[in-house]
Predict the 3D structure of the following.
Amino acid sequence: MQTFGIRTPSPDGGPADTERARPGPARSLTPLLAGAATAVAATGAVLALLDAGTPLRAPSTFLFLLLAPAAAIAAALRGLDPFGRVLTALSGAVVVNMLVAQGMLAVHRWSARGGVVAVTVLSVLVLLSTLLRERIPGKHPQT
């Protein structure tokens, strides 16, 4: 059995720091992927609202229905570590979508447009409540 010690960063920025501070194109890839996912998700919402007959409508609408509530919930959960925040936000997005679908089925008003609108409204409300909570004087948001 082999035991590995904990590597601490060296003060001179030697080999122990090479994994953390990696310059180059890999560091700028995350915002690019986030922007691309946002563009595809927004396109999915527009395609669903316009009832376009393209084969890209279903996957891009699915991406919107997953990312819109997840982004709003993740903005509200600033106190969690990144992995817990992502996991909780995605779980919350699934719950929001299930509640919208269950509500639409209960009132016998099932439609793709209605679902996209309902999820958008709920996501905007969560995001606005988070933004308003930060502006209240005397209240400190989670850090």
